[in-house]
Amino acid sequence: MSYQLELRHFHYFLAVADELHYRKAAEKLFISQPGLSRQIKQMEEILETPLFIRNKKKVALTPAGAFLKSEVEFIINHLEVTKKQLKLVADGDFGEIRIGFLGSAMQTVVPNLLLKLRDKYPQIKTSLDELSNNAQVNAILKDKLDIGFVRLARVPEELGIKTVFKDTFSLVLPKDHTITNDNFENISQLAGEDFILFSQDYSPLYFDTVMSICEDAGFTPKVSHKSVHAQTIFKLVENKLGIAIVPTSLQYGFKMGVKFIKLQNIKQRAELSVIWKKDNRNPTIKHCLNLVLTSASV
């Protein structure tokens, strides 16, 4: 008997690949475990390759299964996106643009883009997702986001990248700290302080840039805390648990017991870039990128 691959096979395969457990996958799919096992076996026969390694203790993906999992995730997601875009187009809209961003991009770049989209392309729907640099890259590669705003020096070759905003850096100190705008001369004055930084995993470029600012001043900062949120960093500074160096634009929108001193005489800048997948077929992306790149502040 000959079989053909159907969409259900891919859904069944993904459930087992995610759970690595046939009973849990079957419960997730609301089918019987023997039925699920038959479907996976049928799929392997059609593809003429084993997708799972099974024994009494565990279920694991074969190398072919691991490759298929990443491809099927992309295909299933693309089908869902296509269905959503199709409905929007049928309703008279252009479609949807899915935007990822770091928190700092919400200070100026992302709000400006949303306003421009609303004014020039009101038929384009938008969705926003605040994610780390790496999470945005992975989501764009998997077709789960259309564009992202990141602080990265390089991205995979499948992606395009353009710097859209260059910012200065500022010190963040407790409000009553003895260093003020009047007596501040150089960051080396604070070499003995504890520093609070954005997590290296969250933004390695930012972390390395701040380290280089201190190293150029002749010291390596003692890092006491790390966070992925500006508000958390400012709260730690407010409670005198350390000081911080952040992109200057981050000072707006927060009312806390901290003060900011702009670092005037340094070469480093906080660069924000837009990234996108070069072969993205979403018809809205060209309009969005045009608006971002024409209003870039670099």
Please, could you describe this protein's structure?
It is elongated and about 80 Å long. Helix content is 39%, strand content 23%. The strands form three sheets. A five-stranded mixed β-sheet has the order 4-3-5-12-6, sandwiched between helices. It is an alpha/beta fold. The protein folds into three domains: 7-72, Arc Repressor Mutant, subunit A; 93-165 and 272-294, Periplasmic binding protein-like II (D-Maltodextrin-Binding Protein, domain 2, 3-Layer(aba) Sandwich), CATH 3.40.190.10; 169-268, 3-Layer(aba) Sandwich (D-Maltodextrin-Binding Protein, domain 2).
Features:
Arc Repressor Mutant, subunit A, 5-stranded mixed sheet, 298 residues, 9 helices, 3 domains, alpha/beta, D-Maltodextrin-Binding Protein, domain 2, 12 strands
Low-pLDDT runs of 5+ residues are none
CATH superfamily of the largest domain: Periplasmic binding protein-like II
Count the beta strands: 12
Count of individual helical segments: 9
What is the H/E string?
HHHEEHEHEHEEEEHEHEEEH
Strand content: 15-25%
Annotated CATH architecture of the largest domain: 3-Layer(aba) Sandwich
Give the CATH class of the largest domain.
Answer: Alpha Beta
What is the first-to-last residue Cα distance?
A: 64 Å
Nearest-angstrom radius of gyration? 25 Å
Query: How much helix, percentage-wise, in residues?
Result: 25-40%
Gist of the model:
One of its GO terms (molecular function) is DNA binding. One of its GO terms (cellular component) is protein-DNA complex. The chain is α/β, with parallel strands linked by helices.
